[in-house]
Amino acid sequence: MSRMTIWFTSDTHGYLFDTDYASREPIDMGLLGFDFPKDENTLIIDGGDTIEGSPLTTYCRQSGEALPVAGALNDRGYDYVTLGNHDFNHGPAFLAAYLRALRARCLCANVEDREGRLPVAPWAVHTLGNGLRVGLVGIVTDWVNLWEAPEHLEGLRVTDPLPAATRAVEEVRRAGADVLVGLYHGGVERDTQTGRLLSPTDENIACRLCEALPFDLLLTGHQHIAMVEKSWHGTHLVQPPCNATHAVKVTLDEDGAFHSELVPARRGPRLTAEQAALRARLEAWLDTPIGVLSRPLRPADKLDMAMNGSAIADFFNAVQLWASGADVSCAALPNELRGFERGVTVRDVMASYVYSNTLVVLEVTGAVLRAALEQCARYFDVGADGSVRVARTFLEPKEAHFNYDFFSGVDYAFDLSQPEGRRVARLERNGTPVRNGDVMTLVMCNYRATGAGDFGMYPGCPRVREIQTEVTQLIIDYIAEKRRIDIPEPRRIALPPRGEG
Q1: Quick one: angle between helices 273-286 and 55-63, nearest 10?
Q2: CA pair distance 274, 292, nearest whole angstrom
Q3: Fewest C-beta atoms under 10 Å: which of 113, 160, 183, 375?
Q4: Across the beta sheet with 343-345, what order do the strands follow?
Q5: Alpha-carbon distance values, 81 to 49, 185, 250, 380 (Å)
Q6: How far is 463 from 449, CA to CA, in rounded Å?
Q7: pTM, two decimal places
């Protein structure tokens, strides 16, 4: 018999229904597919990134319909939540409305609200029916400050999570907690088996938290990595995958040992009449035709696209150049994308460009552009036999193919026989080699403009302008204006080492 059960979700991104929206076929996912058995010794907790990141959240925002996420959490009896970085995407008023609609308490010790709009506390002590006093401390990665538009953090301050968590833990222990649970919207920076450092930044500091603070259990998120039955420095570690495909069930047994397992969502949840009507309106919107391409755009193997070019990435870049008037554009592809039919619908767009990004135009030099391309060339790892594979840093601690950018407006090629940092073999614009001192405008998503993905050459560049319309809407507008779009073949980017191919 367990002394405590915790059901934990994180990074659900507004995925309520049993669909990934690539088609109408039901699959095992969606918050509505969870039914958490609950008694007086059970807690249900969410780790953030809850109200942004799916076609449903986009549809509700654009149509003005009420976002049903808080209601779904309330129906499932959630007790506590913390904030994720994407929960700040639409500013304090939007976030406050969500939190006020929740019956669950929001815990986030390193978010300071100078205007008192957010119902957020740093910690709580929850007494279970059996008398066990559970101390809970919530925190979020402070990289929110790098990624988020300043106006979306107006009146808020996101501080270093470790000092904030340290203060909260001291208060929880003084309050007499028997068990200490951390709720962290951030991930692990080390391999929990070998201790190998996976990321040198402080975006994810779960292991450091376990080393510095006496957490018995640390519930993590943000990285979208399925992780159960792990531990670090005596702390039990878990993390669910994204988009509500699985929850984590954690139990504390009578001997004081934690156990954890992944529990999948069930397809075919029973919907209320209101939920069914919303789902029908959403599906109709997704199937709205926009325009026609000269040929379908299908994703290929990720390494193949990185080496031989991607017509999908070129299409995204064409949209960005059209919307911005910039000289050069760079765009990445998500880890998973649907691609486009010849007859393009809203569904194609939403399932292929899956981020809620806007655009930033920077003024860059040829030296900055070359440095950015050299960073992209680190995507490739060349074996002793000359074979090419995706570098481990783009696969661990999580797959990050979205940190490889494709460029349009310049002609370039990588020579993979050269060492990292010297792989840009050709860089030309309008048939002329690009010199280090050349100046041009480069359009990219707001995420990349912060330097995310190890593109530290960008944050110091002058910002020419920002385009606040989301890229998904720009793609829809572009197709609607053109009506019929010719799709050229992509050009090869990476030259195999030793003259192969």
Answers
A1: 90
A2: 34
A3: 160
A4: 343-345, 289-293, 484-485
A5: 10, 10, 16, 39
A6: 9
A7: 0.91
Which residue(s) pair with 443 in the sheet? 329, 361
| 103 in the same domain as 128 | yes
pLDDT for 367-404, tens place per residue?
Answer: 999 999 999 999 999 999 999 999 999 999 889 999 99
Measuring CA to CA, which residue among 38, 89, 97, 88 is closest to residue 70? Answer: 97
- pLDDT value at 308 more than 50: yes
Helix (H, G, I), strand (E, B) or coil at 182: strand
197, 233: one domain: yes
Taking only the tens place, the pLDDT of each residue in 92-125 is 999 999 999 999 999 999 999 999 999 999 999 9
* Domain span at 332: 287-499
HSE, CB side, 13 Å, CA atoms: give it for residue 34. 32
Query: How many domains, in total, are found in the chain?
Result: 2
For residues 67 and 178, what is the distance between their CA atoms, to the nearest angstrom? 37
The separation between the first and the last C-alpha atoms of the chain, rounded to the nearest angstrom, is 62
H or E element that contains 205: none
CA angle 204, 229, 69 (to 5 degrees): 60
- C-alpha triplet 77, 83, 84: angle, nearest 5°: 115
- The pair phi, psi for residue 238, each rounded to 5°, is -140, 160
- The token pair at 111 is 């978010």
Residue type, 423: R
CA–CA dist 41, 169 (Å, integer): 22
Nearest to 144 by CA among 160, 124, 162: 160
Name the phi and psi angles at 444, rounded to 5.
-155, 170
Within a 10 A sphere around the Cβ of 66, how many other Cβ atoms? 13
- C-alpha–C-alpha distance, residues 259 and 80, integer Å: 20
Exposure string of 70-99, with b = 16+ CB inside 10 Å and e = fewer, is bbbbeebbbbbbbbbbbbbbbbbebbbebb
pLDDT in tens, 202-231: 999 999 999 999 999 999 999 999 999 999
Contact, 106 vs 96, CB < 8 A? Answer: no
What's 38's domain CATH number?
A: 3.60.21.10
- Decide if 347 contacts 285 (C-beta within 8 A): no
Burial class from Cβ neighbours inside 10 Å (0-12, 13-18, 19+) for residue 323 reads buried
Placement of tokens 């998904």 in the chain: 472
Rounded (5°) CA angle 251-253-258: 50
CA distance 251 to 54: 31
pLDDT at 501 over 70: no
DSSP codes joined into one string, 332-366: E--SS---B-SEEEHHHHHTTS-S---EEEEEEEH
Q: Are residues 309 and 406 in the same domain?
A: yes
Residues 9 and 106 placed together within one structural domain of the fold: yes
* CATH number for 443: 3.90.780.10
CB 298 within 8 A of CB 339: yes
Over residues 163-185, the pLDDT tens digits come to: 999 999 999 999 999 999 999 99
